[in-house]
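Q: Structure for this?
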Amino acid sequence: MPVPKQIIIPDQLRLPAERFNYSPGIKVGNTLYMAGQVGRDAEMHVVEETEAQFVQALENVGSILKEAGGDFSDVVELETWFVDIERDFPIFLPIKDRYFTGPHYPTWTAFEVGDLVMGLKIEIKCIAVLDG
Amino acid sequence: MSTIRREFIVPDDLKAVHDRFHYSPGVLVGDTLYIAGQLGRDQDLNPIRDRAAQFSAAFENVGKVLHAAGADFRHVVELETYFTHFQEDFPIVLAIKNRYFPTDGPHWTGWEARKLVMGLRLEVKCTAVLTD
């Protein structure tokens, strides 16, 4: 039996999806695979201030979840790629808690990479499983 | 509307990371067990300095999540290893990996990350599928 597949493109991520030819999200069956998200706004402008940039990256994840009919409580796996993990990990932690409010949390994997596009400080990659 | 079985796996030995950083060491959704990247830290979250001991502890922590979910290393389908010193540490990690995956191992992807938390040298991330 074929598994239904759905391409998820929220309005606020339409520009990078069209410019670079990728899907912000792909829902296969109940599983929603999401592209790594960064702190750019809908016009692909980098949000410079660190906390605001992290919030924007999470808001972008949220826009994919919402478009697919889910929310942050559906996320099962979280990956965060930092360019300066020692400096930014403590900044990210309380922001993460605003989106992943518990009492149950996804898995989390974090590490530092050499560089990201456009001098960004974080990339956030999630997988979610949606009921229904 | 299908409600998918979702279980949050927090082995006793990894409870400290759950409580301090708010993530689940494992999330079991249906038959798929997502496991957070594991590091060579002891129960009190202190990094293990001896390299071989640190790397073994990371695999042991993966094992704790597997066992808490009723699985073992044979169920792992995907293995990712992030090194901070790829050339130097690969031979040591290979020998340790082979103790946990002696035959019919999972697919494996490894690369060098610029940095991991607390000066650790290896992160081990697995996904398992609980087949009969």
